Amino acid sequence: MYTDTNHNTPIHSLSLQLNENKFYIKRDDLLPVSFGGNKARKAILFFNDIENKNAGCIVTYGSSSSNHCRIIANIAVAKNMPCYIISPSETNVTTTNSKIIGVLNAVVIECPIDEVSQTIELQLSALKENGLRPYFIPGGGHGNIGTQSYVDAFKEILNYEASKGEFFDYIFHPSGTGTTQAGLICGNLLNACERKIIGISIARKMPYGSRVVLDSANSYLKSIDENPIENEKIDFVDDYILNGYGAYNKDILKTIKEVLILDGVPMDPTYTGKAFWGMKEFIINNEIKNKKILFIHTGGTPLFFDGLEELMND
Ligand SMILES: *Cc1c(COP(=O)(O)O)cnc(C)c1O
């Protein structure tokens, strides 16, 4: 199983033509473990910590469509560690991710969404009592370890720029729990860079969404003895969430189809396709011209296959 922490995922240009900007994409979907993505980047660091702490099994949380749970289940089974996934019964539908998780022998424990934290606590204490040394990974790989993984990704971007003599004025990416954005913002700050990091929210609204990014960034900065940042430093855009998590429209499907046709890059309607569409709308609405723009492909390839039927019908 791949355990490198220095990934250098590919960065390449895209065919998109919009306002004389030049577009590039960083392919974190190509991280070479369990279909990659930002959850793979985070998980690799979590498993380093798990080994340092000599844990015996894993407990985590996520819905049946969770990319995070797929990757955790996969690395756990490779390391011979039992994996328990607490999953809310309300959103329980069969997806490509839930099927893969089924193949990987993870134990999925369903409960109503308002009993999730209680169920996690019960599971952890039962495992502890039996001497099984459980390790809890927050949903989505949230927390300082997850944030660190995108501070590292930011360094990869700087290395790319230095080697090619390029400079990205903007970095766009889908923002969910905010860990990815917090890491990129901290990387930007710690390397004294002046560039815009714009998280296109795929579900959360302001001000809550940006508050969580701010808290994650400041928790990380505190852990390395750096000064906290202010809310103004966070560009969390909630204009393109439509009706919330998983909601999409015809323009998003059209965008996904275009990127697939012109560049052979798969995107999904919940995360990357939605955020890529949101990025285009943002660029038009804010009249961004003649810039170099990097989009981070945060993965979710199994969701591309869940959405494929819709693309064919369109
Ligand atoms: C989880 C996820 C995100 C959101 O990342 P956060 O760090 O939670 O903001 C974006 N894209 C994909 C494909 C994801 O699975």
Please characterize this protein's 3D structure.
The structure is a single chain. The protein has 314 residues and is an alpha/beta fold. It has 2 domains: 11-37 and 143-313, Rossmann fold; 39-141, Rossmann fold (3-Layer(aba) Sandwich). It is built from 11 helices and 10 strands. The chain has a 6-stranded mixed β-sheet, with helices on both faces. Strands 5-4-3-6 form a 4-stranded parallel β-sheet, with helices on both faces. Strand 4 (83-88), helix 3 (96-103) and strand 5 form a beta-alpha-beta unit. Helix 1 (38-52) crosses helix 5. The site of pyridoxal-5'-phosphate has 18 residues, from helix 1, strand 7 and helix 6.
List keywords for this structure.
314 residues, Rossmann fold, 2 domains, six-stranded mixed beta sheet, 10 strands, 16% strand
Structural class: alpha/beta
Major beta sheet, strand line-up: 1-2-10-7-8-9
The CATH architecture of the largest domain: 3-Layer(aba) Sandwich
Instruction: Summarize the biggest pleated sheet.
Output: 6 strands, mixed
Proportion of residues in β-strands = 15-25%
Mean pLDDT: 96
CATH class wording of the largest domain:
Alpha Beta
Shape: globular
Integer-rounded radius of gyration: 19 Å
Please write the string of helix (H) and strand (E) elements: EEHEHEHEHEHEHEHEHHEHH
* Unreliable stretches covering 5 or more consecutive residues: none
Count structural domains: 2
